[in-house]
Amino acid sequence: MAEISDIFYIDNEYVGCRIDKVLSEMYPDKSRSIIQKYIADGDVTVNDAIVKSNYKFKTDDKIQIIEPEPVDVEIQPENIPLDILYEDSDVLIVNKPKGMVVHPAPGHYTGTLVNAIMYHCKDELSGINGEIRPGIVHRIDMDTTGALIICKNDSAHNKIAEQIKIHSINRIYKGIVIGNVKEDEGTIHTTIGRSPKDRKKMAIDVKNGREAITHYKVIKRFDRYTYMEFKLETGRTHQIRVHMASIGHPLLGDQVYGPNKCQFNLQGQTLHAEVIGFVHPSTGEYVEFKAPLPDYFQHLLDIL
User: Fold this and answer.
1) CB-based burial of residue 255 (10 Å sphere; 0-12 exposed, 13-18 middle, 19+ buried)?
2) What is the pLDDT of residue 93?
3) pTM for the complete prediction?
4) Pick the catalytic residue: 20, 141, 143, 254?
């Protein structure tokens, strides 16, 4: 079944503009012809109604985009080394490296975590999320490192997914942010949704945003940076990155939500999913796994 990927309200600057032109600008990875096909197939609606590609936006129009069913792409297993933290017949816990995409998507059909786990697990992966995302029950950003749960059967997938839904999964991250955070600890409680100004970004307090809660704690303050721990109560896209940027302390190396230039030679944000804890789908016991800080992160702390 296709999933809702975007619901947003049109900005005044787009009133009177064609829907296919606007959406192709908002989604630069999609050609205008692809956008027109989505509209023709009914995957895009305005105010809950199907429209044509020449529809021109009106004030406060509500746009809903439904992600079409994945195209038939044969994803191949690849012998990519995995840093395995734990494995049994239900789950596989891996320490994802920086720069690895979790599941295949346009432009990334090889070299992903899915390619690697398909080789390692053979046919022992849940199929709930389809052929493109076997075993994937949650994900982290390409340049975020750390612990990730892979489900090896549908029963495990359903039980882990339910824990994620009710926010009972224990997820603790480590990160370095720009600036000196004054409070020793605190909580950021907002909503997060797609930015109406830049569709490639997420933003706080937008229409139809979803509740997002991040608890943070200062571990160590440096001259111009702060080493921090983050505990997620919810798991929205880019949550920690957006929340820290919203209080004036973007993650070091994050060129999306922070400065374009960094004095260190970094590949994306300095963020690591250190701890993942959950109730095991078969035993019913709470289990917890810790991914060690990657070398680049530890080296950066030594420099600071």
Assistant:
1) middle
2) 97
3) 0.77
4) 141
